[in-house]
Amino acid sequence: MAQNADTHVVAPEMAVSFFRSILPFNRLDDATLHDISRHCRVDFYPKGTRILSAGETEIPHLYLIQQGGVKAFIEDDQGEITLKDFRGEGDYIGALGIIRGTLANLNIETVEDTFCFLLPREIFLNLVEQQASFAHYYLKSFSEKVVSTAYNELRYHKVSRRSGDDLYLFSVRVGDLVKKLRKVASDSSIQEAAVAMAEYRVGSLLVYDPEDEENIVGIVTDRDLRGKVVAAGLDYQLPVETIMSGPVQTVLSQALCFDVLLKMMTTSIHHLAVERGGKIIGVVTSHDIMLLQGHSPYYLFKEIRGQQEISGLYILAQRIPEVIRGLIKEGAKAGNITQMIAILNDHILERMLILLEEELGPPPVAYCWLLLGSEGRREQTFKTDQDNAILYADPESEKQKKKVDAYFKILAAKAIDHLVKCGYPLCPGEIMATNPKWCQPLSVWKSYFSTWISAPDPVELLNATIFFDFRSGFGDAGLSRELRKHLKAQAQQKDIFLFHLARQCMSTRIPLSFFRNFIVNRDGEHKNHLDIKYQGLTPFVNFARILALKYGISETNTLARLKALFDAEFINRELWASANDAYELQMQQRLIHQLSQMEEGRAPDNHINPEQLTDLEKRTLKDAFAVIERLYSVLDKMYPVA
Length: 642
Fold this sequence. Notes:
alpha+beta, Jelly Rolls, CBS-domain, Beta Polymerase, domain 2, 4-stranded antiparallel β-sheet, 23 helices, 48% helix, globular
């Protein structure tokens, strides 16, 4: 219980001044502010005071922190703190319990001497009931806090702890890694730059314009010295601008190290300039980020890129789940995790096909290895079947066609076999490059999509949706872009095609009963379980795909499609935010469910038993499922049944 100091009446003017400085009170009119200020008290809590105890303390007031700070936390059965956040000046305590009419749901303890304004619960409840914007603020805040708490609860209670594998990718800002800025003028000699690198013991120097030292025009690295100077026998007295790379790629100093790591892995740029307040303050390297942790995704990335034998990729691919486990434990959300899985899987594929081309010789025509389904959407989890195809340029003659057929038959067979040995199972529906139907020239692929769109057969269309999320995995991406251009032009002209997609989407039953109970399987292998992929995630995937095709959006990732739809004002902010949170929360639940199965030595699946979820997880999952009904409502208005 709280160690109470005496509460004191506060001058109304002082309270009004405070209220005007914080949300959402600053949205109230002056008359209301003066009225509620007459009921305010102020209380002082020394450092270490327990203000509220979860499940024990009644909440007579809304606590508004005027000075100081508190920590909010939950303790598990062993008394170990599992969830924690900090609140400072202008933050509130107790609003959720007051609105729900419950005891405190969190422990609240001061971390320094703290003053709080106390607003009686009756006054606060009147404001919630009478002021729409006031109520909206707290409901939105609760939603964000519940989602955040749900992520944390999933992470702490469902992922076993191991010592020594903590990561810092989601807590360290890249600006914190930057050391003193080291740079050289563009007209300095290569030798002078090399001497400076040795003197400063750095692997790179920023290059500036001699007439304006603040104008960074490039970067020179130790790799440039080795490859462009020593290996090429270049004159050391030439100006450093002859070997520098420019313009410099930059990241903001406030960027999380994880986001910077993703940029390095997708661009293969290992040195990035760090910018703060419009000025470059230094350089961050892949090595800097690797030093943050013992099992960095970048270590695995580098090993994949440097592998010289295809068989060496087998063991590297099987290390991906351990890297992803670390990201989940650190607190990564599903969007971060699936991005990383996609990047690592893509590099396994790229390295394997590069080595295969060295073995088989160059292809007779340009080609593109297509990734389909969840791979095409960059939404793979721990359970990912192969879904791929080959798209190649149309042969110029019958003779060339025979060479093309022979080459890609061998390439596909070897590639699929290697992918299986890397741990990627065969597609049960044979949607793979080894199936001759899915190894075709551009003209044939265009005809496939034209047929699916122009004369949509509901059954065939259901099986074909996997192809509409294609992206280039390796090879000539121009072929993939040409096919996407054809698809966009066809889809936007055929409303009957989109009508069928929409009605198919809405045929998936929402896994909630009228009384908001979970609908689960009543018998069979997965009795009392629900399929979170098919029943929960697939409606979001289908909704985003339909609207992306309707409005000509090229993105294939579901979250990226939703964001693009919002940016273009095809859906409103509230629907976008709700769909984004609901989808990502379910994906998080799916990933952690699969990870816990793997740690128990079981094959991962998508079947979740709601009775094994905590009350918070059940609530947030039900809220996520409820969003599906709103998506269906949008589609039903667009494509009503005549």
